């Protein structure tokens, strides 16, 4: 099984488990079953996210990343490709569902793809960045991420200068290989 396919399946297992639990309240009644992102602070959500991450690590997913909360959605959470099997992820997810059931469903919803207009702005930004000293800078993918062979380039002075010169085309967050840099 390819790494990308395994990552996709692991994400589906995690999101499906959390989505099902959120939809039915995890079999629990009371305040936890009715929580929404609007009724919970970011700190409360991140406390649950950290508890969930620790539970996943305690149940065999040693390299599970807690992730961060960006624009009301959990990003960069999960296990690195190839670090666990689908069975290990499923077992840990089931063991930790008492925590994931408390997370608002909207926090776990996938980010919608960028509009065609935004993708066009990002493509013009890419062209500009290439013209300002980074000839290998890629166009955005359909999710608005820039697939970089060396993600550290965004910390370079050369990129900072190119980004400043090209902000007229696009001045939003930069997703790199699926993650974000604001």
Automatic annotation (TrEMBL):
Keyword Signal: yes
Signal peptide per UniProt: 1-25
Claim: Signal is one of the keywords in the record: yes
Keywords of the record: Signal
Protein name (database record): Lipoprotein
Organism: Dactylosporangium cerinum
